[in-house]
Design a protein that fits this description.
With 634 residues, the chain is mainly beta. The protein folds into three domains: 244 residues, Immunoglobulin-like, CATH 2.60.40.1190; 244 residues, Sandwich (Immunoglobulin-like); 88 residues, Immunoglobulin-like (Sandwich), CATH 2.60.40. Helix content is 4%, strand content 41%. It contains four helices and 37 strands. Strands 17, 18, 19, 20, 21, 22, 23, 24, 25, 26, 27, 28 and 29 form a 13-stranded mixed beta sheet that branches. Strands 3, 6, 9, 10, 11, 14, 15 and 16 form an eight-stranded mixed beta sheet that branches. Strands 4, 5, 7, 8, 12 and 13 form a six-stranded mixed beta sheet that branches. The two termini are 14 Å apart.
């Protein structure tokens, strides 16, 4: 147990809460803030602050963190594999990286035969570009014209930086020390010329300016740097070429110029320093609640079970910055949208439809319900013109590991509106449902909706209801640590006459495709339980009232209890201490009676919040509750 002293409105409130143990995220790390002048870029890493830095171990043959880290041998058999420690600090408005790499046979050549480090810091400076674009950096003994000038292939030569342009040099500063002599291995008979020149390791200090990349790490709320890096290792190439091995090992993504696999989230906040003690635990991007006490829904494509009204959904809508900016963590910058050319052009988007995705788990099964509002529902068997949803989930275990890159394979679950208005499943959803019998899914059109490619009538949309047995994706019985790496992509194609007015869009939450960065880190929380929705014989409440929330204080979920006097649509509103609305949740149509809703605050900062509810009754009346207070403590 731990005690927290809070100062609220002049009063001292003592609150005792249970310590909340949370698994350390494998896709994230803290960079502590250190005082100005405490690091000198000299390639030695002998400053005391490096001893307090958070670090990752990067070793050939071992994962540096799920889901995107991996390793591969590109040429030959790896005899001298790399093992490195990477450290992260922030000083001023710059990120400092420290690499200590144990390696022999250090030296340079062309890009495919050189020791080096390539890394990617996503560029947030263009607020109109979503997802954030790649920011490429290269360092190493790389003898290419697009790198800095200078010879890196002679004995004792030191590395260069790239790409070779003035902009990169304003962002990137580095220094290196080597134990041994570079570009000296032996002779053609593999005999060592001078044992004293055998390489054993190198150390690199790097400074990367962040402000021009759109980050503000000095603001009180801090920032999250989106980063991936690969250590490239070429051995036994100097001075001869008949015995060469080349490999690479990486943190979350192997390339510097693409949106591949994943990226590491580097958390920064000015109050998390080299002397501030243990770093704060990091909340998941999204929490899926436990439905063990609710009735299993009938998978019929109609989200009429009350369990669906108990869950706060994920909204996805093309062109809606407010919706995208409401996503947790790096969600506003990883999430994005795309409008491809249709019939040779990009037509005006008449209907910016939306989808709401809700999920819960029960036992080993993930249940999902998707509600789509779409005025033009169609079937067109071309990806750029689909109507439907793609879930991308990373599997566990050897059967779901990339045999070449040794990272987790993302599985693609595609559910489309079919030509007859029923579900058309593709990719891994087809395998799980129709071959392995480990999934269910039904798509059903809403009333008054027809499938056509003329746009002559106005539709309402459709709903999708489904389930996936996660043990078929390598999860153990009981779901292990409960971590799910997830992406959602909503497709909306609208066709009209004339055909030049037709268009298609796709909009995604965190990850566009199963092989892209960056999946949401989702926790299936066994303790976040959805309460039973069975009907009771309780009397009908006379008033629309809030009956409190429990636990309070909470982390990160609390159950709100309330009474509804008559059937109607219910909405939750959450306010900060200035009275600004910070979260809303449409809970759907609910019958008269007592209800509960599990609210998850993982996307919010610790503090005091207020909440109320509104009711739009079926008879046309509008009601509001009084405001209640709740306390969220991470």
């Amino acid at each position: 147990m731990k005690k927290i002293v809070l100062f609220l409105a002049g009063a001292i409130v003592f609150i005792t809460i249970a310590s909340h143990a949370q698994m350390k995220r494998s896709d994230a790390v803290w960079a502590r803030t250190v005082p100005a002048g405490s690091i000198t870029i000299d390639g030695k890493m002998n400053e005391p602050v490096w001893n307090q830095a958070e670090s990752l171990v990067v070793e050939y043959g071992k994962s540096a963190g799920l889901p995107g880290s991996g390793w591969t041998a590109e040429t030959g058999v790896v005899l001298d594999s790399v093992k490195a420690v990477v450290k992260f600090l922030v000083m001023g408005d710059s990120l400092y990286l420290g690499f200590t790499v144990k390696d022999s046979s250090i030296g340079g050549g062309i890009f495919g035969a050189a020791d080096g480090i390539i890394f990617n810091i996503r560029d947030k400076s263009d607020n109109q570009r979503h997802p954030a674009s790649s920011g490429e950096y290269l360092w190493g003994w790389i003898n290419e014209g697009w790198m800095d000038a200078g010879n890196v292939t002679s004995p004792g030569a030191m590395p260069k930086i790239g790409p070779k342009d003035a902009y990169t040099k304003t962002l990137f500063e580095t220094a290196t020390t080597v134990k041994g002599t570079t570009n000296v291995d032996g002779t053609n008979d593999n005999k060592i010329v001078d044992p004293t020149k055998i390489d054993t390791s190198y150390t690199v200090e790097m400074k990367i300016a962040l402000k021009n990349r759109g980050y503000n790490v000095t603001s009180p709320k801090g920032d999250i740097i989106m980063f991936n890096a690969a250590i490239r290792d070429c051995d036994w190439a100097w001075p001869f070429q008949d015995f060469v091995t080349f490999s690479r090992v990486w943190i979350q993504g192997p390339w510097a110029n693409t949106n591949d696999k994943n990226f590491l989230r580097i958390y920064v906040r000015p109050d998390v320093t080299n002397i501030s003690g243990a770093v704060p635990s990091l909340a998941p991007d999204y929490v899926i609640s436990n439905g063990e006490s609710v009735s299993t829904p009938a998978i019929d494509g109609t989200l009429d079970e009350l369990v669906w009204s108990k869950i706060e959904g994920i909204k996805i809508r093309y062109g809606d910055d407010a919706v995208r900016n409401s996503y947790a963590g790096v969600g506003p910058f990883a999430s994005g949208q795309y409008q491809p050319n249709v019939n040779g052009s990009q037509a005006f988007i008449y209907d910016t439809s939306d989808a709401t995705v809700k999920m819960f788990f029960k036992g080993n099964t993930l249940y999902f319900g998707i509600d789509v509002n779409d005025k033009v529902v169609q079937f067109y068997d071309l990806e750029d013109r689909w109507d439907g949803m793609v879930l991308s989930i990373n599997g566990l275990g050897k059967d779901h590991q990339n045999p070449t890159d040794h990272d987790q394979i993302g599985r693609k679950f595609t559910i489309l509106v079919g030509p007859s208005g029923k579900d058309s499943v593709r990719d891994y959803m087809h395998i799980l449902r129709d071959s392995l019998m480990k999934a269910q899914v039904v798509l059903k059109l809403k009333p008054g909706t027809t499938v056509d490619t003329t746009g002559m009538d106005e539709d309402q949309g459709y709903q999708i209801e489904g389930s996936i047995d996660l043990t078929a994706l390598g999860y153990p019985d009981g779901l292990g640590d409960g971590i799910l790496f997830l992406g959602l992509t909503y497709y909306d194609g609208d066709s009209f006459i004339p055909t030049s007015s037709s268009y298609g869009t796709r909009t995604w939450w965190f990850r566009e495709r199963e092989s892209f960065a960056a999946a949401a880190y989702v926790y299936m929380d066994p303790n976040s339980k959805i309460t039973s929705v069975a009907k009771t014989s309780s009397p009908v409440p006379e008033q629309f009232v809030l009956q409190g929330n429990y636990p309070n204080p909470f982390n990160p979920s609390t159950t709100i209890k309330y009474a509804v006097p008559q059937t109607g649509a219910v909405k939750l509103l959450v306010y900060d201490m200035l009275g600004r609305i910070v979260r809303t949740a449409a809970l759907g149509e609910q019958e008269a009676g007592e209800h509960t809703f599990t609210f998850n605050a993982s996307q919010l900062s610790s503090g005091v919040y207020y909440y109320s509810m509104r009711l739009q009754s079926a008879s046309g009346g509008e009601f509001s509750t009084r405001v209640n207070k709740m306390l969220f403590i991470k």
